Amino acid sequence: MRLFFIHIILSICILPSAFSQLTENVVKANFILNVSKLVEWEEEDTINRYQIGVLGSDEIFEALKDRSHQILLKDKGIDVVQFKRINQISGVHILYVEKKKKSCVEEDPGNRNNTTNADVLRQLL
């Protein structure tokens, strides 16, 4: 019985932080999908499925992937792909960059070619 109460107390302490992280990722996923409804792409009528890329986090990737199966974007399906590095990115309509990966798309002062990762990213998209 005593072990049961310890288990309940630990669950109460640990669960809120795990739940808040889950909720935060679901909120981010919903925000991305809702904002996507407002975007107009060139030659939108030729798009069969929208591609959303995630640079970074497994958690936001999973949340977006789960939500993308539940809704349509402008009456079309949504594919969510995850990238771990900037040079993997290609063919997405929307790219979510995790805060930890923000430095991947910022300028590199030691760059000899005067090109930034942001320039490379624009070419990839």
Structure description:
The chain is of the alpha/beta class. The protein has one domain. 43% of the residues lie in helices and 14% in strands. A 3-stranded parallel sheet has the order 2-1-3, with helices on one face.
Helix content: 40-55%
Strand-pairing-aware structural class: alpha/beta
Q: Radius of gyration over alpha carbons?
A: 19 Å
Strand order of the largest sheet: 2-1-3
Shape: globular
Along the chain, the helix and strand elements come as HEHEEH
Tally of domains: 1
Strand elements, count: 3
- Number of H/I helices: 3
Main β-sheet: number of strands, strand sense, barrel status? 3 strands, parallel
Strand content: 5-15%
Separation of the first and last Cα atoms: 58 Å
Which regions are unreliable across 5 or more consecutive residues at pLDDT < 50?
111-115
Overall pLDDT score:
74
Describe the SSE topology.
Layout: H1 2-36, E1 49-55, H2 58-68, E2 77-83, E3 94-97, H3 117-124
Parallel strand pairs: 1-2, 1-3
Helix pairs in contact: 1-2
Concise synopsis of the structure shown:
Helix content is 43%, strand content 14%.
